[in-house]
Amino acid sequence: MKQANKEISPRGAFGFITKRVLAWSMWDWGSAAFNAVVTTFVFTVYLTNAELFGPDANADLGWALSVGGLLIAIVAPAIGQWTDRTGKRQTMLTASTLAVVVIMALLFFVKPGESYLWLGLILVAVGNVIFETGSVVYNAMVTDISTPKTVGRVSGFGWGLGYVGGIVLLLILYVGFISPDPGWFGVSHADGANIRVSMLIAAAWMLIASIPVIVTGRNTEPKNSDVRGVIGAYRELFRSIARLWRTDRSVVWFLIASAIFRDGLAGVFTFGGVLAGAAFGFSAGDVLIFGIAANLVAGIATILFGWLDDKLGARMVIIVSLTLMTVSGFLVFLLHGGLSLGPIQLSATGVFWVFGLMLCIFVGPTQSAARSYLARIAPRGAEGEIFGLYATTGRAVSFLSPFMYSTSITLAASAMGVAKSQVAYFGILGIIAVLFAGLLAFLPVKAQAKY
Question: Residue 34: which pLDDT band, with cuts at 50, 70 and 90?
């Protein structure tokens, strides 16, 4: 394990927030433009509107993202291994960031109409591939700006800023463009202009927030290696997996377990808005407001749990978080019709607000703790490769949450003899099943070394 760097040793309660940490974390803040705006709450909702883009838009989005996910699984480990060998992490992060910014700006040209559907789908899928590739490098950089004693707080701080950035940007877009008609600068809802202009704002947001890490980041010294080309990268990757299996199978098991529970975490946000609207009576505006609130509680919790990560260890944070998420999700299901218990009276909408937000509290801490756990156990000089494998294993099971979500609803509708729309709340059971499976798979994973 690498030695602590005196430059980034903690000095007081917030001493871990150095200039390098802040510059690195601002990328997380800016990346919310892609995560929250493009893929979760705004553009994909616009793109899957059957009235604007046709009845197959929703299914076609799934196919496009599936192909993109497969490409990520193929290229991520090779990219990680290449950046470790050449030392060009900064170059790769800069190139991928600028490419994502360009793609977000190009979404402006996706007008309503079936003829524009595939333009939007291709841009979103390609953007997702490039974004995830950049994330591999970005996640690996956490070991460059932290010490073993502060990596939990640094990781949590960055992830927390990402959620806060999402809140601020969603609020700006909601108040300025999405809700009013016309919005700021006279932008109307006609021809999807409010959504399309929002993509330009999102692109500028990510570009500006990424400037600190682009300007201050540096490449590292290249490693002496005989590995050449993509085939050579994969040969070395498989050798690394074999070495990990021989030396510490807990690491391999962590990659498998984290792939499962991370897909469950993705399912919480991917289908949270759908559940709110389909099963709990939320309007489109209500969904966006809930998204802002979800990002707020997740962001605050992630920053706070970063301290627990360094004190108790990432393993404990992950186990506690997954356990409480499972309980909260099950309560959303059980109380889907409302809650009447003495003075406590909650409608179905109120139940989702209370227990749905409780569910969201632990998404960020689990994601951050998984990143810090891997950063602590990654061999020095091989961080990019390990995080590339981390991305690959996550993509390998990315079908789990969508499959379990749809299967739960389909089986419930068949068993009860009703339409699927009447039992949409059963979808939460599918997400809970994935989270619980991830928790069980994670229990054998050993705690990382104490510092």
Answer: very high
